[in-house]
Amino acid sequence: MKTTKQFQTEVQKLLDLVIHSLYSNKEIFLRELISNASDAIDKIRFESNSNEALLEGNSEWKIKLIPDKTAGTLTITDNGIGMNIAEVEENIGTIANSGTKAFMEALQEAKDTNSPELIGQFGVGFYASFMVADKVILTTRKAGDPKAGCRWESTGDGTYTIEECEKEKRGTEIVLYLKEEMKEYLDEWTIRSIVKKYSDYVQYPITMDITRKEPVKGADGKVIEGGGDIEKTTEETLNSMKAIWARPKSEVTEEEYDEFYKHISHDFEKPFRTIHYSVEGVSEFKALLYIPSHKPFDIFMPNKRRGVHLYVKRVFITDNCEALLPDYLRFVTGVVDSSDLPLNVSREILQEDVQIRRIEKNLVGKILSTLAEIKEKEPEEYLKFYKEFGPVLKEGLHFDYANKEKLQELVLFESSKTEEGKPISLKEYVGRMPEAQKEIYYITGDSREMVTNSPLLEAFNSKGYEVLFLTDAVDEWVVQSLTEYDGKTLKAVDRGDIELDNEEEKKEKEKTKKKSEKEYKDLLEFIKEKLSANIKDVRFSNRLTDSACCLVADEHGMNANLERIMKAMNQNVPETKRVLELNPSHPIMQVLGDMYKADKSNPRLTDYCELLLDQALLTEGSPIKDPLKFTKLVSELMVKAK
Fold first, then answer.
1. pLDDT tens for residues 132-175?
2. Which residue in 58, 243, 381, 567 is deepest, having the highest Cβ count within 10 Å?
3. Which pTM was predicted?
4. Are 613 and 527 in contact (CB under 8 A)?
């Protein structure tokens, strides 16, 4: 029974964007449909390794294009794995894994900024059909189930119909009823040129019936004069089917590399770098890897799929081989073709296979050495890459101990002495450390602006010591593993005690500090008592030169930034009390000291203690407990200042 249904809201929004000229390059619709057909054949080739019955006696792989100028239709067929009605509903009626707010925002941004086409990278290339067609009919049948035929039809107007149907052969047939102004895509030359440009490397035949007029010939094979012409139709293959990764680098053009990248990644921009090489010996494989020029919108989503396809002797195995690359290199896409693995290898075995581990080690080493070379020889280009993928690459410092030394040479950080957008390496930082500086100092926070204005930097600035700004969320985990570099310890400016002075300065400050501690001993105890519900301790600071106060964590305690990150991740964060540090030289100490001596029961004294804490919370970017009371006290102080 035919059923009419509404598109999912996100799908309809997508169709509206597509139909109303989101993409100027209309011809990509054919590339996307051919790519989907190729994927469908890949899948049945893999599944048939363990279930030959799925082939139904047909293993002559083919993608066929059928233009019909009379009907105004272009048909694309394949003998891939096909779909049942539930899969059609999931894959076409909805945006299965990409139906998110972020997905639609990314598409809208592309429209607003005139950025290159990006429909394919979200796995919804089928919808590109509506750029050229008024109506689309899809007929498909799942391999191995003769009764699983299904027909889907839509004009892109917000609804579609779906019904069960009979289909003799497995696979999928898509009929596009082309718009009048899109009839050029029925021309033989146009179709040939599109296939050659985008899909020449697809490893399955892309065919089309070609009709030619030929002169009538006699039995001897000679043309009969005046015999006229006859029409002869033959099925021709339009693509070379050469596996691009199996060809020598010298024979592959940059354009071919770029087009294969777009085919495999569904990205419409050129890749940042192409890595093509082969390995012989203990482990034999060929690899064609791509580093994208921009990060996909879903790179930090937990269900982000990997981009590396695994082949064994040119037979597709999987397009999501998690064992080939570690998670921090999940932005890399491409193909790995092994000569060592068995064709019937399972996804479970891949996780433990020794050969796969060898390949992974080799791939990681090649990618990291390529990045290191770019960083050294083309620093501006490397900076472009790092702005896109730096936070992802840094994850490796926490998870990939074997490559820690290589990775720590690749990471970059902004600092208190760099311009915004011009980060430096750890090597550069160490190279310009003053002789008296013994540790590498850093501060974590939400943004450069926040950490730049932190009072925690005052003593470092006065000494001329550079402080690294770690403003990516992942940095809090990175520094748990990156504890030293070049024999120098990494030290957080907001944790534990800080000692920046030489012996002479230390003696002088110690004398002043002891004097202040003696003078304000009772006041410090009073402040600690009044704020005991929120702080762990009160002490005089070595960090402050201008500000009155700041909050710091214990040496191995949770600082404010990590606490904010954990809460944002909906984690149950235990209540953390930090130390309130006071500047003994700040005039406010004299004011508080005089008030305490005059009348320790003065309620204003308690108010000012709370103001100190609120001030410290605000400067570290944390919310204050009672904003209304804070603003009231500040207002009263402003009135008194008249």
1. 999 999 999 999 999 889 999 999 888 899 999 999 999 999 99
2. 243
3. 0.69
4. no
